[in-house]
Amino acid sequence: MIDALGSPGSLLLVGGTSDIAVATARRYLAERPLRVVVAARDTPRRSAVADELRAAGGDVEVVDFDAEDPSSAERMVAAAAAGGDIDVAVIAFGQLGDQDQLASDPAAAAALGQVNYVAPVVVGTLLANRMREQGHGVIVALSSVAGERARRSNYVYGSTKAGLDAYFSGLADSLVGTGVSVLVVRPGFVRSKMTEGLPEAPLSTTPEAVAEAIVSGVRKGRHTVWVPGAMRWVMSGLRHTPRAIFRRLPF
Amino acid sequence: MSDQVLLNGWGRTAPTPAVLTPVHDDAQVRAVLAAAGGRGVVARGLARSYGDAAQNAGGHVLDMTAADRVLAFDAETGLVDVEAGISLDELMNRFVPQGFFVPVTPGTRLVTVGGAIGADIHGKNHHVAGSFSQHVRWLDLLTADGEVHRVSPEQDPDLFWATAGGMGLTGVILRAQVQMKRIESSRCLVDTDRTPDLDSLMSLLAETDHLYEYSVAWIDTLAKGKRMGRSVVTRGRFATLDELPEKRKADPLKYHGSIKVTVPDVFPPGLLNLATVAAFNELWYRKSPKRKRNQLQSIPTFFHPLDAVGGWNRIYGPRGFVQYQVTVPFGQEEAMREVLDRLSSFGTASFLAVLKRFGPGNPGMLSYPSPGWTLALDIPVMKGLAGLLDSLDEVVIAAEGRTYLAKDSRVRPETFATMYPRLEEFRAVRKRVDPEGVFTSDLARRLAL
């Protein structure tokens, strides 16, 4: 159960080896010990993450999950819930893709859609069902400012995040009164392994800052957070920028 | 499920949905139990627990207040048999005019007998009378097998003392026999003392508490430095017939307990801030007499000042509040000072804190009172509070103290287990009477009870 002051007793990280997922678990564990379920592919990185979170005081379980395998989500949620109620679930997996390839390769575009949109929707539906039954819980979905208005430099990625964002925003409204809530997180450019080697965009942020925003958003019962907070106003401006100007912007 | 309602505790934090069913008799309780399903059942009374004790996310909650009859009363002995949903308020309305008061009352009359046993509540007379369960002769408990067991300190004492303070997790308390306390009048003779700091408060209580049946101190938590712990102490007992003024002797047991005003649900968050609360506390301290003896007060004025204001929990706004109540043994006064000091310097906009000395504890496995000092204060939900209270818990644990489940909404499960070394005994009894864990609550899940 999430207590009166917003501290959960259990945390499910879907895409548990992502930098943001790990930073979120670390941030929670800095306050209190809790049960952490790391759902990810069986890789050396997953073992390393599990070890690290155990050392930080977590009661850690690992569960198999592969966003590219449509059947793995159901097994993952069942396995994660077997150990007790899931208080907070962070849907943190996603890929950036290579825009040059995505622009011309339909198979690559479809694959990105599977990982960044279809799989989160499947996981979100399963988690919402599960949490409706348990009568409480928070689903945290990692969206992106890229989904607010697709840019020519990464519109395939942006479109998947737009779909994800729309799905979880609608899901949030459908869950009012059930005890379950959804927090949609819209970070800007996050310096992480996903963006390694890419030039930094303005207002870039870190996995730790995103984790901080997640913990504080859950604590306050927020529905949407931007990271950094100023992104909200920047994106609001960009959404209303005329297309003739927007498409010429240098990022 | 469509017939779920969102339920919360007195602190108005962390609401969760459940199917709430009013139950009038044993058969209705059994019916809900049979239909419970995987998320289980818990009984709910007047919902004065601050946290999540009477909530059960996704499951069933029994509204016990529908079962509120007096079944038998012996005017010779003062023994009363009641249904568990009756409130202490109703017991006072019925029996004060007949010369009987409840054996123990907390700061509110608006609790049920079932809740009073489940939380093993205490009052201003703990140092002489113990807690509520010590005045319960027997109780009827409906357990997970659907059977009703009459348990008492003699009949299945383990189950009795797991149920007293067991927060409803052993079964549903249906009925109980309570030993009422004989009174000659409905008026209290009250002595008031003002103490300028914590040291003088603690020595006053330690030296003279035994002279009073009822005793409590209200501390201004915002006073700092030399004035830290400045307090108003009110102590008293029921007046005898002889002690009443002539005009009251004709109707010595006259009693009128009522809610005078109700707070509307319109308070914005942050209305109670340091400035407004400090001003209130200052005024309250200055208007109290330095020393006053033998003042006649009514039961509501002396015991339940806040009950005059219905729904006062709304003044904390929609984000709600928590109550931090802890006890430390005698000899650990320094720990109490540190807790108070850190709360005061953190700048929580708290009204008054309550300090009291407990007498001996009882065999209740999760019963809260134990010999020592108990401190309670309300704190609005604010940034940094979770970390502060976690660190205060460390101070309390080091002093071998504990926190009170009826007030708790945020303690860490492992902290709770350290504070209550008899938790394993409680779990063993629960396993015996409820192996499947049908009786459960948000509190039970949060603390892995």
UniProtKB/TrEMBL annotation, chain A:
GO MF assignments: oxidoreductase activity
Gene3D superfamilies on file: NAD(P)-binding Rossmann-like Domain (3.40.50.720)
SUPFAM superfamilies in UniProt: NAD(P)-binding Rossmann-fold domains
TM region positions: none
InterPro entries in the cross-refs: NAD(P)-bd_dom_sf, Sc_DH/Rdtase_CS, SDR_fam
Sorted UniProt keywords: Oxidoreductase
Family membership noted in the UniProt record: Belongs to the short-chain dehydrogenases/reductases (SDR) family.
NCBIfam families named in the record: PRK07904.1 (NF005912)
Name assigned to this protein: Decaprenylphospho-beta-D-erythro-pentofuranosid-2-ulose 2-reductase
Automatic annotation (TrEMBL), chain B:
Superkingdom of source: Bacteria
GO molecular function: D-arabinono-1,4-lactone oxidase activity; FAD binding
Start and end residues of each FAD-binding PCMH-type domain: 12-183
Keywords: Oxidoreductase
InterPro entries given in the database record: ALO_C (IPR007173), FAD-bd_PCMH (IPR016166), FAD-bd_PCMH-like_sf (IPR036318), FAD-bd_PCMH_sub2 (IPR016169), FAD_lactone_oxidase-like (IPR010031), Oxid_FAD_bind_N (IPR006094), Vanillyl_alc_oxidase_C-sub2 (IPR016171)
Record-level GO cellular component terms: membrane
Protein name: Decaprenylphospho-beta-D-ribofuranose 2-oxidase
Organism, scientific name: Blastococcus aurantiacus
Higher taxonomy: Bacteria, Bacillati, Actinomycetota, Actinomycetes, Geodermatophilales
